[in-house]
Amino acid sequence: MYHYTAIQWLFFFYFYCFFGWVFESTYVSIKSRHFVNRGFMRGPFLPIYGSGAIMMLVVSMPFQDNLILTYLAGCVGATLLELVTGMTMEALFKVRYWDYSNQKFNYKGHICLSSTIAWGFLTIFMTQFLHKGVEKLVLSIPYNILTILTVVLSVYIVADFTLSFKAAMDLRDVLIGLDKARAEMEKIQKRLDVLIAVANDERETRKLEREERADEWMENLEERFSKVREHLTTNPGAFMDNVKDELAELRSKYLVEKEHRLQFDRLKDFYQRSLIKGNPGMYSRKFNEALEELKKAVNERKNK
Questions:
Q1: How far is the C-alpha of 83 from the C-alpha of 255, rounded, in Å?
Q2: Residues 122 and 221 in one domain
Q3: Could you tell me if 45 and 160 are in contact, meaning their C-beta atoms sit under 8 angstroms apart?
Q4: Which residues, listed in sequence order, are joined to residue 107 by a DSSP beta bridge?
Q5: 127 shares a domain with 80
Q6: 96 pairs with which residues across the strands?
Q7: Does residue 177 form part of some domain?
Q8: Are residues 100 and 176 located together in one domain of the fold?
Q9: Which of 96, 120, 140 is the last residue of a domain?
Q10: Which residues of the chain have pLDDT under 70?
Q11: Where, if anywhere, are coiled coils annotated (predicted)?
Q12: Which of 123, 140, 157 is the C-terminal boundary of a domain?
């Protein structure tokens, strides 16, 4: 059984947060062939690893002399932690920081059988090998020094997490705003197509492609408004007065949504950009078009 004080438990949590960051940042950096500061936070800490490590220690406590039960406890505990964390983060931020949808026997992309199996083996490695060395190291630190280190780390990590949480919530608002602006532009474009087609006595209007980038949408809308101005210049009677009023209203709406989109697309916040760069596999079921556009904008800025 583990008999630790609250300070020691907290320091173990921070240690494994750091250990997880080193492991995952190294792995992703090697795959990407450039340094990637992995994770939700900007500092060198991944809370999911710290939470997972503490969970493994806790659930394995009653079964330390039984490897099979330790394995099963790790499978269940870590899988539940991953499921709850994934669902909570997606509900809050509208974004997934990991996705197992391409794996067999997955549940809504949050968990999958292969990761559950791996969690069990990792729990055995953790409790039987890794933690023994970490425990020896931590218990060798004088308690007063350990307390000071833990308090200092707590202040730093709470501040970092707070800023990262705010950035993630702001990024969620950016995604929602970009999606809303695009939807409004789609409505404006459809209505413009109808009005122009009527003025030209055309039967069909252009079909819209959802794959278009938002800047292409703006170009298309600018083109349509140019056509309207040409009609009014060459044939002032092409549109009835009520249609002219509607066109003016559509133009005003477009200018508002264009400004909204440009504001959202700037993404000036360092933490928001770092969230995207540090999580290249970030995915959003509802707002993925907007998210991919932001990813591209961040990468283009990085390459300049």
A1: 43
A2: no
A3: yes
A4: 111
A5: yes
A6: 283
A7: yes
A8: no
A9: 140
A10: 1, 194-222, 224-225, 227-251, 253-271, 300-304
A11: 171-198
A12: 140
Q: How many helices (DSSP H) and strands (DSSP E) are in the chain?
A: 10, 2
Q: What's the token pair of residue 93?
A: 């931020």
Q: Are 32 and 154 in contact (CB under 8 A)?
A: no
Domain count, the chain: 2
Helix axes 241-266, 143-199, angle to 10 degrees: 160
Same domain, yes or no, for 121 and 222?
Answer: no
Q: How far apart are CA 103 and CA 113, in angstroms?
A: 8
Domain holding 121, by residue range, is 6-140
Please name which of 130, 103, 124, 125 lies closest in space to residue 115, comparing C-alpha atoms. Answer: 103
Side-chain-side CA neighbours of residue 52 (13 Å):
29
Q: Residue 163: inside a domain, yes or no?
A: no
The model's pTM is: 0.73
Q: How far apart are CA 91 and CA 153, in angstroms?
A: 28
Question: Using one digit for the tens of pLDDT, what is the confidence trace for 251-296?
Answer: 676 666 666 566 555 555 666 777 788 787 788 888 887 788 777 7
